[in-house]
Amino acid sequence: SIAILLYLVRKFKTPDHWYPSDLQKRARVDEYLSWQHVNIRGKGSKVFLTKVLLPLLTGQPLPPEKLEGIIEELNVVLKQFEEKFLQDKPFIVGSEVSLADLVALVELMQPVGAGYDLFEDRPKLAEWRRRVEEAVGKQLFQEAHEGILNIKNF
Fold first, then answer.
1. Can you say whether the dihedral through the CA atoms of 6, 8, 10, 11 is positive or negative?
2. Where is the GST C-terminal domain (predicted)?
3. Which pTM does this prediction carry?
4. Res 55 pLDDT > 90
C-alpha cells in the first residue's frame, strides 16, 4: 500500500529522489500517489481481473465488447498520465526517478501480464518504462515482475 511505502521511505531514510524533501517535488509525488488509486490502479487492475482472474474462476472469457470498453477506460487514463504527469520529463517529478514512477510502473505491469501491451503504441510511455527499469535495475525489475508476467502460464 502507499501508506506502507511512505513509512518505509521515512523509516529507512532512502535517497532523497524516492520521496523528495523539496516540497514542490514531494507534492508532485503525493499528487500522483493520490490520483493513481482510481485511475491507473483502478483501470489497470480491471483489465487484469477481466482478462485473467474472471476467466480462471468462471471458465468463460469476458465478451469482447465488454473487454473493449475496459481497455478504452485504461487508454483514457494512460493518455492523462502521459499528458499530466510525464509531460516532456524523463520521470514524473523531473530528472530523477521517484516513488511515483515506481508505483506507476508496477501498476501498469498488471495489464501487460494479462496480455495487453499498453507500451506498444506509446513511445513516450515505453521510453519512461525503460528509464524506470534502468533506475531500479533491469534484473531486479524482471525478478519482481516474474509472477505477474507469467500469470498466463498459471
1. positive
2. 22-154
3. 0.91
4. no
